[in-house]
Amino acid sequence: MNFRHILAASALASVIAAPGMALAAGSSEASLDLVQPLSDYKIYVAEKTAELVKDTQGLVEAVKAGDVDKAKSLFAPTRTSYEAIEPIAELFADLDGSIDARADDYEKGEKDPTFTGFHRIEYGLWKENSTDGIKDYADRLMADVQDLNDRINKLTFPPEAVVGGAAALMEEVAATKISGEEDRYSRTDLWDFEANFQGAEKIFDLLKPLIAKDDPDFVKKVDGNFSTAGETLAKYKTDNGGFESYEKLTDADRAVLSTKVNTLAEDLSTLRGKLGLD
Fold first, then answer.
1. Amino acid 26: pLDDT
2. SS3 state at 31
3. CA distance 17 to 81
4. How buried is 254 (Cβ within 10 angstroms: 0-12 exposed, 13-18 middle, 19+ buried)?
5. Burial of residue 137, with CB atoms counted within 10 A of its CB: 0-12 exposed, 13-18 middle, 19 or more buried
6. Residue 242 is inside which H or E element, if any?
7. Whole-model pTM?
8. How many CB atoms within 10 Å of residue 160?
9. What's the mean per-residue pLDDT of the chain?
10. What contacts 54, CB < 8 A, 6 or more positions away?
11. Cα four-point dihedral sign 94, 150, 147, 75
12. Which keywords belong to this entry (predicted)?
């Protein structure tokens, strides 16, 4: 049995056992319909967390080797796996805070010794242009990412968290990320945006067959908004598959992204009701 088959069996068993599958009154049929999408999503998340562990190891090795340029090149692509599965990662508040908190969350900002994770490493690489002060933080990040992977693999996914996760990703982008505050030192925000969009679209795609039969116009509208957002991001793709600095976005493109993000957040927030989970 290969890795994906093992994941599928484990995911299906955990979803079937999920107590949340019987939440909606009179919706036993809808609950059963959700079993396969939730199982498929757990496989997706497990693959992303495994990728996160592997990529973080590379980033940490570059930091500990003192290779600032290599660490900078690995920073944004390493974060994408985390950003794609953020609704699940955020179920573990302690790890989410340790891995992805921003300096604003700490009394002394960047100088606070309890400021850890990706953004502490980002600050060291771009603002201090050095790895000297962040090697211990890199070790801590590695341990936290491995812990996250272990916890997610043991987690029974709450249906409400998964279904609501698509909207949660867009709401976070709309509320804080569109301003550019997330990756404020590296300006690699567009990598995060793409991962957020992909994570939300993955959830929507898995649930789409359950919605399309009753509301095809809604599905067409959401698909169109995801497509427009993707086309806007594609303007800033670089030849190596990455993105230009967030500062290079025009005001017009920021406005388009903001509009689409807000529309997607609003539309995706109705998924729970459409699937009988309210």
1. 38
2. helix
3. 26
4. middle
5. buried
6. none
7. 0.88
8. 15
9. 89
10. none
11. negative
12. Signal
Percentage with pLDDT > 70 across the chain:
89
According to DSSP, residue 237 is labeled: B
pLDDT, tens only, 117-151 = 999 999 999 999 999 999 999 999 999 999 999 99
Q: Helix/strand/coil (H, E, C) string of the chain?
A: CCHHHHHHHHHHHHHHCCHHHHCCCCCHHHHHHHHHHHHHHHHHHHHHHHHHHHHHHHHHHHHHCCCHHHHHHHHHHHHHHHHHCHHHHCCCHHHHHHHHCCHHHCCCHHHCCCCCCHHHHHHHHHCCCCCCCCHHHHHHHHHHHHHHHHHHHHCCCCHHHHHHHHHHHHHHHHHCHHHCCCCCCCCCHHHHHHHHHHHHHHHHHHHHHHHHCCCHHHHHHHHHHHHHHHHHHHCCECCCCCECCHHHCCHHHHHHHHHHHHHHHHHHCCHHHHCCCC
Mean pLDDT on 35-54 = 96
Residue 16: pLDDT over 80: no
Q: Cβ(68)–Cβ(129) under 8 Å?
A: yes
| Residue with the two structure tokens 């498929």 | 40
- Tell whether the model's pLDDT for residue 9 goes beyond 50: no
Contact criterion met (CB below 8 Å) for 88 and 157: yes
Determine the Cα–Cα distance for residues 85 and 104; give it in Å rounded to an integer.
Answer: 23
- Please compute the mean of the pLDDT values over residues 185-189 and round it to a whole number: 97
**Residue of 163, 202, 172 lying closest to 48 (CA atoms):** 202
Give residue 69's identity as a one-letter amino acid code.
D
**265: pLDDT confidence band, cut at 50, 70 and 90?**
very high
